[in-house]
User: Fold this.
Amino acid sequence: MPQLAQRVGRAKPSAIMVIAEKARQLKAAGRDIISFSIGVPNFLPGEHVYEAAREALKHDSGQYGSNRGADALLDAFLQHIEALGFSGYGRSNLSIGIGAKQVLYNLAEAMLNEGEEICFAAPYWTTYHDIADIVGAKANVLHCGAEQNYKLVPAQLEAALQRKPKVFLFNNPSNPTGMVYTREEIAALADVLAKYPDTWIITDDIYNSMVFDGLGYNNFVFARPELRDRLVFVDSVSKTYGMPGWRVGLIAGPESVAKAVTTLNSNHITSVPEVITAAAVAAFAGPQDVPRAKCEEFAGKRDVVVEALSAIPGVVCPRPQGAFYAFPDISVAFGKSYQGTKITNDVEFCAVLLEATGVACVPGSAFGEPRAMRISYTCPTAQLKPGLERIQAFFAQLS
Assistant:
């Protein structure tokens, strides 16, 4: 029979969704499951978002929309990024996608030829490596362990850029670690980037409004405005507004990149539907009280998680300052056994943890760091402490 394209063989199922599906199956079988696995915010947007969607339904044209995005959405996004600190951008610098994931895939298609190099730090969001593999790019992964707070340092970036990669992909705040780069750290990396003008820069910063401790959001272009000619900022309504299922992602960058993504949209998705567009406009342009309240709530949950993890002997967890993740180094458990079952790596650890305690976490190897696991603490507040207590008890029973 005919064979599938080779690129399909390079595509892998999401490791995060594999864990989430296993947890779902156990829950359906009657198990008491607490999920720290999937990275969804687990809150709903404000009522004004739903009202905008309902109103749009009343006036739905049933027609195709703009490949770039409706003017109202582009203008609302411009307002949003100006509040973040981006200035001087217009509609021609923007384009849309069906979520940030599809935007990133479009950017990879637009920027990377087969065999060209993309570099990014590990721990990384699982999709980065997957997209690189699918488009046939070479991934240069820059390992940043817990000993350096999971953060890329200038010397590492310098060494990577000396290889002349086509694209440097950066994530701040970070999924899976929750780490946030300070203004000084961003400036130091930006100084390195300024010396290598032949590399595109993508900043995947969809958690930009979920920053704790008064740290604030920073971007390379704030520190070195000349980087604007080759920097693309990626954002989404998913995390900030509790709208992952609405699937709206956007970029701001050079006109040539926005045009390329828009052209790809004309072949891939055509447009974002009218009703969803109206909801996204309302999210960006409407009251911001829900995102602000949720940011405060997540900061409080972060404190609970860090306190619980720090009480486990041998576990190291750099203190996250954004998003809604913690990424503890659990390698102290490797080589030990739980009730006769030996644990030699992060995958086995998470599998035994789920079966034994009903707590679902994602192995760190899915993110390029096999010594750790990811905890997403967006579960209902009532489940947070019991879930953490189960993890503590699990460690206590290792021998």
Q: What stands out?
A: The first strand starts at residue 34 and ends at 35. The mean pLDDT is 96. The chain is about 40% helix and 15% strand. The radius of gyration is 21 Å.
